[in-house]
Structure to design on (139 residues):
């Protein structure tokens, strides 16, 4: 998709690309700004190359305005999600408690995996699965 965006940008040219600049920059910015563990470095490099191409094509001033607008939108979305999560904690404490328990459980599992990788001889105790008990019919 990034290659397609780059090709369209070059094909449209300087004047016709301006209305679509925000639309093109949004996924590129998201890819550059992401911090996922299993992120593909080639994708990040490609998005950087396309951003450089757009910068040369449109000009630094127009590009900077569009890029700052995309940045601002992303930060607003992030703040809105954070605010909604905080409001949900107050409005639905049971859901928040469930989320917190899940987070703690995942943290403990991660800690056990880390210990196992650092000390292969030491086996961390694993929590027994309750799957069979959940499947059993209770009268």
């Amino acid at each position: 998709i990034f290659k397609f965006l780059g090709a369209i940008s070059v094909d449209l040219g300087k004047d016709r690309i301006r209305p679509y600049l925000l639309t093109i920059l949004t996924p590129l910015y998201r890819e550059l700004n992401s911090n996922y563990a299993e992120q593909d470095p080639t994708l990040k490099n490609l998005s950087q190359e396309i951003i450089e191409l757009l910068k040369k094509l449109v000009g630094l001033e127009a590009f900077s305005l569009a890029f700052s607008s995309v940045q601002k939108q992303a930060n607003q979305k992030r703040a809105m999600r954070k605010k909604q999560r905080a409001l949900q904690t107050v409005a639905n404490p049971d859901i928040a408690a469930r989320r917190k328990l899940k987070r703690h459980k995942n943290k403990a599992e991660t800690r056990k995996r880390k210990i196992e990788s650092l000390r292969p001889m030491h086996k961390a105790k694993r929590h027994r699965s309750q799957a069979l008990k959940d499947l059993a019919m209770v009268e």
In short: The chain has a mean pLDDT of 87.
